[in-house]
């Protein structure tokens, strides 16, 4: 058996975890770290959040924690077997080992067990099905560690069975592929077959759950390969992507954007031909208002709003920003520059501070312009002059300009 002694593992032993471990030990309940945290630790990554698994039932845990005066946080996990305890300012989410009794492709009815192998069997991918004892012992029933070292993504047991338990696992397969696999195209044919045969099941999964996975795929590696695959395997239509997605543009933009930390929507918009595609995505996935507006902005401006020829390539973007009356236009322009692959201009635009127009109505009144309407017209004319000067003219220059006008 392998025993992990990595510093990332040692660092988990906070006062809170030590107290939790002691309680379980006293009662002879087994407690292990489960799933994603084990995968992260074995990859030398500090896990963001840690799930624990135990042989104790929810009732036994509640009794044990209550007797020890530990605060329990009520968050509806109990019917799935999860208890959340709070010790030393830290939350511990601990789930009883379980077997899926009935699954409908969306949720499962579970029964508790003390059999670690059976619990591992109902998890999605081999790299997510391992447990780690608090002494560092690895419990790995499906060669997850081997797969992790070889950067292979595989379902636990038969792919088709795992997918039919929860169709969202199709997208989880893609997400972990983009996170762990070394190169595109390294799939087992039988897995791809199972995905294709079960793609339709995604139609029954809620848009919100799909969007969470899809966003992570869009920001991971091999995104071009994975999205092309979604079309080849007939998944796209069930998750809100346009039937005739523009895959050439997607390939181009996903390459442009590689090191620019785009928003998921920026990458995705390259598939879209027009604003209807954004609306349809929103209907299926219920994206946020901000995401929808970004998609519509990119579809509308990606062709016309491009860098200026000549000495001031940023000018078109600056002018657009200065004329805009909407909120967060600058962040939308940053995303547009990423989409266009304009790394240098993006940096310059991010460093540019929006200048403020130096003349006010008050200045014009002092000069004897009295009617509101005239002031409005004059200000607009001066703004145009100011813009022509590249926002360089100061108050004096503008006001002397007004005398000419």
From TrEMBL:
Q: Which domain of life is it from?
A: Eukaryota
**Keywords, ordered alphabetically:** Magnesium, Metal-binding, Nucleotide-binding, Nucleotidyltransferase, RNA-binding, Transferase, tRNA processing
Write down what this protein is called: TRNT1 nucleotidyltransferase
Q: Is-annotated flag, keyword Protease?
A: no
What family classification does the UniProt entry report for this protein? Belongs to the tRNA nucleotidyltransferase/poly(A) polymerase family.
Q: Which cofactor does it need?
A: Mg(2+)
Q: Which PANTHER family match?
A: CCA TRNA NUCLEOTIDYLTRANSFERASE 1, MITOCHONDRIAL
Against InterPro entries, the record matches this protein to: Bact_CCA-adding_enz_type3_sf, NT_sf, PolA_pol_head_dom, PolyA_RNA-bd
Q: Which CDD domains match?
A: NT_ClassII-CCAase (cd05398)
| Keyword presence, GTP-binding | no
Q: Which GO terms describe its biological process?
A: mitochondrial tRNA 3'-end processing; tRNA 3'-terminal CCA addition
Q: Which residues form the tRNA nucleotidyltransferase/poly(A) polymerase RNA and SrmB- binding domain?
A: 188-239
UniProt-recorded Gene Ontology molecular function terms? metal ion binding; nucleotide binding; nucleotidyltransferase activity; tRNA binding
Every copy of the Poly A polymerase head domain together lies at: 31-154
Cellular component aspect of the GO annotation: mitochondrion
């Amino acid at each position: 058996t392998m025993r992990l002694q990595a510093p990332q593992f040692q660092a988990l032993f906070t006062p809170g975890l030590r107290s939790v471990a002691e309680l379980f030990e006293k009662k002879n309940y087994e407690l292990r770290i489960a799933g994603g945290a084990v995968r992260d630790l074995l990859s030398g990554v500090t896990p963001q959040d840690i799930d624990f698994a135990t042989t104790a039932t929810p009732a036994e845990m509640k009794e044990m924690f209550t007797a020890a005066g530990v605060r329990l946080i009520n968050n509806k996990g109990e019917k799935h077997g999860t208890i959340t305890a709070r010790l030393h300012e830290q939350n511990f989410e601990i789930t009883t080992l379980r077997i899926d009794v009935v699954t409908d492709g969306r949720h499962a009815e579970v029964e508790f067990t003390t059999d670690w192998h059976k619990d591992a069997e109902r998890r999605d991918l081999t790299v997510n099905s391992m447990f780690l004892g608090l002494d560092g012992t690895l419990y790995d029933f499906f060669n997850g560690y081997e797969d992790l070292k070889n950067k292979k993504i595989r379902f636990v047991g038969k792919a088709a069975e795992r997918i039919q338990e929860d169709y969202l696992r199709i997208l989880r397969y893609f997400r972990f592929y983009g996170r762990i696999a070394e190169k595109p195209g390294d799939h087992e044919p039988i897995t791809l077959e199972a995905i294709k045969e079960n793609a339709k099941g995604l139609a029954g999964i809620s848009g919100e759950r799909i969007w969470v996975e899809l966003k992570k795929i869009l920001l991971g590696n091999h995104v071009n390969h994975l999205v092309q695959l979604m079309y080849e395997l007939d998944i796209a239509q069930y998750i809100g992507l346009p039937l005739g997605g523009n895959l050439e543009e997607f390939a181009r933009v996903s390459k442009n954007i590689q090191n620019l930390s785009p928003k998921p929507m920026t990458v995705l918009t390259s598939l879209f031909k027009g604003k209807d595609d954004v609306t349809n995505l929103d209907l299926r996935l219920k994206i946020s208002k901000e995401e929808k507006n970004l998609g519509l902005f990119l579809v509308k401006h990606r062709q016309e709003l491009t860098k200026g020829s000549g000495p001031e390539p940023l000018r078109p973007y600056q002018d657009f920003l200065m004329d805009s009356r909407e909120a967060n236009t600058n962040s939308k322009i940053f995303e547009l520059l990423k989409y266009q692959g304009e790394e240098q201009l993006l940096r310059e635009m991010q460093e540019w501070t929006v200048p403020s127009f130096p003349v006010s109505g008050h200045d014009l009144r002092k000069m004897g312009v009295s009617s509101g309407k005239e002031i409005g017209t004059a200000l607009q004319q001066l703004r145009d002059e100011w813009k022509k000067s590249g926002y360089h003219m100061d108050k004096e220059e503008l006001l002397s300009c007004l005398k000419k006008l």
